[in-house]
Amino acid sequence: MYTQALDLQTPVPAATGSAAPVGQDLREHAFNARLADGQKIEAQDWMPEAYRKTLVRQISQHAHSEVVGMLPEGNWVTRAPSLKRKAILLAKIQDEGGHGLYLYSAAETLGTPREAMQQALLSGASKYSSIFNYPTLTWADVGVIGWLVDGAAIMNQIPLCRCSYGPYARAMIRICKEESFHQRQGFDSLLAMMRGTAAQRDMVQDAVNRWWWPVVMMFGPSDGQSVHSAQTMNWGIKRISNDELRQKFIDATVPQAQLLGVSLPDPDLKWNASRGHHDFGAIDWDEFWRVVGGDGPCNRERLHARRTAHDKGAWVREAALAHANKTRARELGRAA
Ligand code: 3HC
Q1: Is residue 194 within 8 Å of residue 260, measured between CB atoms?
Q2: What's the mean per-residue pLDDT of the chain?
């Protein structure tokens, strides 16, 4: 399928030592040299099967997260408190759908059809972010998703703009720009509530209390438990570890919470001058793995919603395919 063996863009470094690399070794040598040189790997380039598989796993999980992530916020479209907030929310949800599409496209360049990735989501074989298995109980939850969830997503995703796989890195550049707007609108919405009534302030604090720990968990298991990190960092897919990103997020968020006037629900959260970072309390990893394993507050509801949407959309896919086939046949007829 791939003819990239003829398309090496980096000169293969001269072999040192005994025998010069041949065949697969030669291609692996060139692949490693490109990574070491900071060059991107492109779809037509040779890559180890494990690199390809890892990218499909991560990018498709990421795409699923964007699409499933539309559901908790979608819950509030008809109940947004003003026309302005409704328009912003609709645009944000559409952005998330768009992110899913860029990411499925990036993953497709690796040779896995979109339909196969979507089936993996619908069957429960493929994961999506734990964070979207929590409910949005009040309007303040929508602001907190923007501020904290999108804030955590940006922290994790900015380094992915430098990912070694070109199509993923380029998709991430646009996604991060949009996520940055999402984070600001969330903060703006919460600020408006914090300047409102005591009931509104209580609503914001309650939402922060419920979302804080799930957001801290979003970065994934701690480095010692992360099964993929060592290899993905070696390949330049992941640039910063789960724990480092979590720490950067917490350090960046504490002053924002102060500005907003909310407290973060962690009695152990305090500045540690000797580390130059905030210390924070123990994460409930049992809860994390329960949610990842399918037993969170909304896992069943989310998958049910996705399956229903997929079934209801079958006629649209069939119609689009029929139209594409008809257009192609017409063009072929004209060319003949
Ligand atoms: N939720 C669900 N599963 C998670 C998870 C989370 N928060 N964190 C880790 N996991 C899973 C991994 O997918 C892996 O499972 P697998 O072997 O079945 O694929 C397992 O737990 C072990 O974790 P590792 O740390 O070894 O896995 P990774 O090296 O892949 O790191 C990651 C996990 C940090 C999420 C990484 O995959 C990543 O950076 N992904 C790209 C970004 C992404 O997907 N973000 C999701 C949120 S997107 C979003 O929030 C949308 C926005 O609109 C807000």
Answers
A1: yes
A2: 93
